[in-house]
Specification:
Blueprint lengths: L1 H40 L1 E6 L9 E2 L2 E2 H18 L3 E4 L10 H10 L4 E8 L10 E4 L10 E6 L4 E5 L1 H13 L6 H21 L16 E3 L3 H4 L5 E8 L3 H8 L1 H21 L4
Parallel strand pairs: 1-4, 1-5, 5-10, 6-9
Antiparallel strand pairs: 2-3, 6-10, 7-8
Helix pairs in contact: 2-8, 5-8
């Protein structure tokens, strides 16, 4: 009886051992299949900031427009390799593409997401780190801001997100009175915010000159953000004015790392939210 039980137990363990890898493989295959379908149907519009007559930030003879284009082309390569459908607003640095045309191109192509790629600059040489910008569906009050950072491009306003959430809840509670356009704008903001959170989670957090932790997500009424009806995030990859980050922004190896981080952020976003 004892011998039979032992043989039965061994057979059971053997079957479990043989089945387990197939079961895990089957599960992984199903997950990849589901993910592949999502990726294959997702259209990502990449906007390399500036270009042509507009060099963007110009630091130590370096044009921001060239940095954004090189990184965007590597990002396109990365996203195509994992199954996304990708289109760029420009593919050469001689192209001058008006901001309105960039928005129109993304709309005409029926993009699901828009990523506008930039490199930052500041007179404060110690400022560093990536920043992710989205547009708000309402005009915030002054007391909603924690801190304002001045850069060459514009003022970066650090919001108290609890205040934003309160305002959004207030607007939604009055949804019968709110216009369809307002509700659509809120929906777009929420998707953009989630996308910015997913993207920024792969970047290092730095400190401000004051010693305070620097935020990664900001809001700004920049044209690409304000006028795009598609979930849009503007990414400042780093500061050309910071000596260490300048070298990183010029390095192809680092540009590939930026592209890899963004692709991981997009996959993380898809894990949390389905656009289809």
């Amino acid at each position: 009886m004892k011998t039979n039980q032992t043989i039965f137990l061994l057979k059971t363990l053997l079957l479990v051992g043989l089945y387990a890898p197939f079961s895990a493989h089957s599960k992984n295959k199903n997950e990849l299949s589901t993910h592949s379908k999502a990726k294959k149907s997702l259209k990502v519009f990449i906007d390399p900031g500036h270009g042509g007559k507009d060099p963007g930030a110009y630091v130590d003879g370096i044009k921001e427009s060239k940095v954004t284009l090189k990184t965007s082309l590597l990002l396109k390569e990365e996203l195509l390799s994992i199954g996304f459908d990708v289109k760029l607003s420009r593919e050469t640095d001689s192209e001058s593409v008006p901001l309105r045309s960039r928005v129109e191109k993304a709309n005409k192509w029926k993009a699901d997401l828009v990523l506008s790629i930039h490199a930052n600059s500041s007179t404060h040489k110690q400022l560093r780190g990536a920043e992710f910008f989205i547009d708000l569906p309402f005009k915030p009050n002054k007391e909603d801001y924690d801190e304002i950072l001045s850069t060459e491009h514009s003022q970066r306003m650090s919001l108290r997100w609890s205040a934003v959430e309160e305002e959004l809840l207030s607007i939604k509670s009055k949804s019968k009175k709110a216009s369809v356009a307002t509700l659509n704008k809120i929906d777009q903001f929420e998707k953009s915010h989630l996308l910015a959170q997913s993207l920024s989670s792969f970047w290092e957090v730095h400190k401000l000159p004051s010693g305070k932790r620097k935020d990664l997500i900001f809001t700004s009424p920049l044209f690409m953000l304000k006028h795009s009806p598609i979930p849009t995030v503007l990414i400042e990859l780093g500061y050309l004015s910071h000596p260490i980050e300048q070298q990183m922004l010029l390095s192809e190896d680092e540009q590939r790392k930026f592209a890899k981080k963004i692709s991981k952020g997009l996959l993380s976003f898809l894990d949390k939210y389905s656009l289809k």
